[in-house]
Amino acid sequence: MKLSSNLSRLLLGASAAALVSALSLPASALTVRDDVGVEGSEDDDRGGNEQWDGVVQLYYWSNAGGVFFNCTGSLVNHRTVLSAAHCFNSQPSNTYGLDRAGGDDTIIAAYGPDTFDALFNWLNTGETSIDRRNGLTFSTQVITHPDADFGQVSFPGADVALIALADPLADLPTYSMLFSPVSVGEHVSLAAYGGHGIGSTGDVGIDGKRQAGEDILGMVGSQNDFLRGLDNSSATFFGAPDGDQIMYFIDFDNPDRTGDECQRRSNEDAVAFGVGGVQCVDWTNGAFLNDSLFLGGPSNDFFADDALENEAGTAGGDSGSPLFFDEVNGELLIGGVLSGGFTFVTFPGSGYGDVSYYTSLFQYHQFIEEANPLKYMSAVEGDGNWSDASHWVQNLDPSYRIIDANGNVINGIPDGPEEGLSATGPREGTIYGVDINDVDPAQATPATDSEASAEGTFGGLETTNFRAGGTVEIGATDFVANGLIATMATAESDEAGALSNDFEEERDVPTFGVGDVDFGDLEGAGSSGVAPNNGFNAAGYINYFDVTLDAAGTTTADIDVEIDALTLANADATLAINDDVTFLALVDTQIGQGTLDVGGVFASRDILNFGLITGRDGTIVTDTLFNAGTLTAGTGLTVDGDLVLTSASTLLYEGNAIDVVGDVSLDGQVTGVKFGDTGTLLTFTGSRVGNFSVNAPGVLELAYVYNAGTVTFEVIANDYETQFGGTGSANSFAIGGLLDGLRADNYSDKTTLYDTLDVLSGTDLTTALNALVPAGGLAIQQSNLAGTETRVGQIGSRIKTIRAGRADGNSVNIASTGARSAMPMMGLAMQADAAAQSSAKTNTKGWGSFVEVTAYQGDQEAFNGSDERDIDGLSLTAGIDRQVGKNIRVGGFLSYGESDNDAKDGASVASTEGFTLGAYGVKTGEKIDWSGYVGFGQSDISTARAGLTGGTVSGETEATEVMFGVAGATSFNESLEGVASLDYFSYEIDGYTETGGVSAVTVGDQTIDSLQGSLGANFYFMEDSAAWQPRVGGRVVYDFNGEEANAVISLPGQVGTAGADVVGGSDDLGWVVVSAGLDYQTQGKTIGGLFVEQTFDRDNLEYTTFGARLRVEF
C-alpha cells in the first residue's frame, strides 16, 4: 500500500542504535499475583490466548522525532482504537495525524503478544507487518471527547477517546461495547501493555508484552463516592464535574491476607497517631481524609471480595486499556477504559491492595456513535447509483450492546442523548462496610476544582506521606507512560515529508470544546445523505465505510470507490461495476446472496462468494477469491490473484473461460454445459491443485483435460436408466431407452427436450419421463369400457322386460351409477310400460320402445406416477322392437355416450363423445330364455396434459367400437333364477400427434379387447300378499382378454422408426358383482322398486350402482 511504501522510505536511516531504554521508568503494565508471575499472566489462555490480540499498545511519535511509551487501547472495529482521552489531551486533538510535513504528531498502534518485536522491526526495516498477529499501524486522527479535549475539564472527566487507523487491522479480533451499566460483583477481565510486576513488588517496568488478568467489579460510583465511603463521611474531595463522574472500580486483592489486617478502628483502637479510620496493621502508606486517618497496605480489601486465580492490578502504561465484562452474555464486552487510581492507598504502587477506576462507556455512547470513524451503511431498496447520496442509509453498528428490559444483551444504543458528566447514577458499592449511598453527599457543600484541597485536615494534623515523610496529596493519578524509546527523523527532513495518509485533500480538523460538535452528517443509525467513500467528510473527520447491500435492487458503481468492506446479503441485490470504474474494498468482500457484476476493476483483499459473480470483460484483483457459490466469466472475466473453487463451488460455463493470473485450486462442479459442448473453462499462470470433484448432473458426463495453464472439457451423455437409482418405472425405462436411441440423429432438432431431461436424476428424472406419457389417451380406454358396459346394462334392462312379458308399449328408464364414491349417487329409474300388470310371459305381436338414460361416476386406479383418476359419464340409449315369431322378439337401438377421465392432480385430462348403433333379440323358452345383441360405434377423443417445460400438450383422435354378446337365463323355481352371459367389446383408437411444445409425442394406433364371461343368480323373496318383495343377486365376471392399456409413442418428426411401448394401468381378469333390490307391486296401475349393485375386486374400475324403477301403464 501507499502508506507502507512511504514508511519504508522514511525509516531507511533508523536503527536500533537510536533506542533509549525506558524500562526503569516508574510505569508498568498489569501487576499480578506472586504465584501466577509475570510470565503466567503473559500466557493467560482463558478463552484462547488470541482473544486478547485486539488489545494494542499505543506509542506517541512526536513530530520532533521522538517515539515514547504512551497507553493501551482496544479495537472496537478494524479501523478504530478505543482508549482514554487523558493519553492525548495534553495537546489539541487536531495536532494528531499523518501529515508529518504539516506538523502532525502521530500515534502508533502496535499489536501482538510482544509489541517490541513489531516496533523494532519497523525501526530497522521500515516494514509495518511481521505476520498476521504482529505489526503496527498509525493514527490518521485522534478524537477525544469534547469535554476532555485540551483545556477542558480536569482528569478524569469524559476520559474517552477514539483513534482512527491508517490501515484496517482486519486479522485481529474486535470487541463490542456495552452501553448499559453493570452491577457490582460482575466478573471482569483485564488486558494491557504497561509495565509488569507482581503484587508484592509492584511494577518493575515496561517490556512491550501484553498481560491479562481478572478481577471482580467492586464499585460503581465516583471518586468522591469512593473517598466518602472510605472516610464514612459526606465530604467532597474532588471538584465537579469530574470528581462526581460515575466510574467502575476494582481492587487488587492479596491472596495471602487473612482478612483481619484491615478494619475500621476508633481512636482508641488506632494503629498509629491515635486517630481512627480504616487502618491496616501492615500499612505502608496513608493519608488524613476528612474525618479519619486512612492507613493502607497490601492487605487492603476495599470491596470485600477475595483474590481470583488470575487476580491482577493496573499501573502506568495501562491507561485506556479495556475493562471486559466477560460473563454478561458470553462475549468480551468493553464496559470502560482505564483512567487511573489513587496515589495514597498502598506502597509500592500498583501492588497488592491498590485500587483502579475505569471511565464507564454508558455515559458517553453518543460521542462514540457519532465520532466512530467506521460507518456501517446499506443501500435502500430499488435501483440507484453509488454516487447518489439518497441511495444510502446508516446502519446500527454491530458492536454496540445494551441490556434490555428483560435482562438480555442486544445490539442497540440507549435512547436519547448521552448523560455524560452530568450522570448521577447508578451508584452501587460498599467500602469496608459503608454503603456509598448511605453517605449522603447533600450534607456537604461541593467544592470546585480550585477549592478542592489536595491536603485534607483532621484534628489539626496535616496529611502525611508515610512512605518518606512530607505532605501527600489525596489525589488521583493516571496510568500514562511517557518514557522516550527512540529518536526518529524530524518533520523537516526529506524522509519525514514522504509520510502522509492516503487522503490527499486538504481538511480543517476542528478543535473540540464543551458542547455540541459536528462530527458529520452520519450521526447514527438512520442517518443518510452520504454516499460511502473513504476519506474526510464535510466536517473534517475521516470516515471509513463497511457497506452492506441487503435490499433488492441494483446499485451501479458509477464513480471510483474506496471502502473497507463489502457485503451482499439479498438474493435480489446486485452491485454492477461500470466499465470505467475502479472499486476498492480494502478489507474483504462477502457475498452471502446476490450478484457482483464486474465491468471495470473490482479489488478486494479477500473475496468469499456464496452468491453469484459474473463478468463483463472486467477484472477482479484480490489475494484470494474463495468461491462457494456460482462463478461465471459472463462475457469475460480476469481474476488477478489466486482462485479457490471449494467443494460447494459452481463454475457456470457460458461460453468464455475465466483467466486467472495466479494459482488455482479446483473442486466442486461445472454447470451450464449441455451434450456435445466443448471448450476451455479456465486459464491460469500459476500452479493447479485438485480437480473438479462433482461431475455434470444427470446423464451428462464432463471429460476434463487438465493441461499446464488450461482446463478444457467435452460433454458426453450416458443412458437415462443409469440415473433412475431404483425409482424407474416401466414407462420411464421405455421412454428413456427411446430417447437414448434417437439422441445421435435427433439431438439438434430436440435440443430443448434433451437439455431439460439430461440434467435430472432419480425421482426427478422418472417423473419427467413419465410426463411424456399420453396418460389421458391411455386412461380413456377405461372410460370407453365403462361406457360400453353401461350400454350393455341398458340393453339388458330392456331384455329383462321382454322376458317378463311386458315388452309392448313405451318405457323410460333413468338410472345413475357411482364407482368408489364415499357418498354414492342415488339414481332414479322410472320405467313405464304399456303392458299388462301380470308378470306372465304374455307379449303380444305389437311394437315396443324404450329410452334409458344412465349417468355413471367412478375412480380409476393410479398409474404412471400420477394420482387416481375421476371418471364421469353419461349414456342415453333408445330402442324399438317387435314380436316377429312365436317367443321371438327383435329390435334395434341407437346410443349416445360421453365421458371425462381426469387425473385428480390435474396432470392430464381426456374426454370422449360418440354414437353406437346396434340390434338385439330375445327368444323365450320353457326352460331357458336366450338373448343377444350386436353394436357398432364411432367416437371422438380429446386429451390434454401438462407440458414438461410448461404449457399444455393436446391431442385429438377418433375411435371405433364393436360390441356383441349372448346370454341365457333359467328359472329353477318361483324364487331362484340363474343367468350366464358372454360379452365381447373391441375398440380401435386411431394414432395421433400431440401439439403444444417439446413434450408432444406421436401416439400409435391403440386396440383394446375385452371378452367377459359371467355366471350368476337372482333370488326373489316371493309372498303373494306382500306389497314389497325383496331380491338379491350376484355374478362372477371373468375377462378372458384382460390386458393393460398400452400404446407405442415416438417423437414427432423423428429420424428413425423406433418407438416406446407405454402402458396405463393394470389388467383386470376377474371380479364379483353383488346386487340387491326391493320391488313394489299392487293390483293397480303402478309397479316400482329400488336396487343397488356393487362391484368387488376390480382393480381398474369399480362401480356401485343405486337406482329406482317405476312402471306406468298408458
Strand residue content: 35-45%
- Taking Cα atoms only, what radius of gyration do you get, to the nearest Å? 49 Å
Mean pLDDT, rounded to whole units?
A: 83
The number of distinct helices, counting runs of at least 4 residues, comes to: 10
Number of strands: 69
Shape label: elongated
Low-pLDDT residue spans: 1-28, 443-473, 488-515, 811-842
What class would the helix/strand composition place it in? mainly beta
Biggest β-sheet description = 21 strands, mixed
Question: Notable features of this structure?
Answer:
single chain, 1114 residues, mainly beta, 21-stranded mixed beta sheet, 13-stranded mixed beta sheet, 43% strand, disordered N terminus
Task: Give an account of the 3D structure.
The chain has 1114 residues and is mainly β. It has ten helices and 69 strands. It has a 21-stranded mixed β-sheet that branches. Strands 9, 10, 13, 14, 15, 21, 22, 23, 27, 28, 29, 30 and 33 form a 13-stranded mixed β-sheet that branches. Strands 53-54-55-56-57-58-59-60-63-64-67-68-69 form a 13-stranded mixed β-barrel. The N and C termini lie far apart (112 Å).
Write the layout of secondary structure elements.
Layout: H1 2-10, E1 31-32, H2 37-42, E2 55-61, E3 66-77, E4 80-83, E5 106-111, H3 115-125, E6 129-131, E7 134-144, E8 161-165, E9 176-178, E10 187-192, E11 195-198, E12 202-206, E13 211-216, E14 219-221, H4 223-231, E15 247-251, E16 262-265, E17 277-280, E18 285-288, E19 293-296, E20 312-313, E21 322-325, E22 333-342, E23 355-360, H5 365-371, E24 374-379, E25 384-385, E26 392-394, E27 400-403, E28 409-411, E29 428-431, E30 434-435, E31 457-458, E32 461-462, E33 476-478, E34 484-487, H6 494-497, E35 535-536, E36 542-549, E37 553-557, E38 561-577, E39 582-598, E40 601-609, E41 612-615, E42 618-627, E43 630-632, E44 637-645, E45 650-652, E46 658-660, E47 664-665, E48 669-671, E49 678-684, E50 688-689, E51 700-707, E52 710-717, H7 730-746, H8 751-758, H9 762-770, H10 775-803, E53 809-818, E54 847-860, E55 869-885, E56 888-903, E57 908-923, E58 928-946, E59 952-971, E60 976-989, E61 992-993, E62 1002-1003, E63 1006-1020, E64 1028-1039, E65 1045-1050, E66 1060-1064, E67 1070-1081, E68 1086-1096, E69 1104-1112
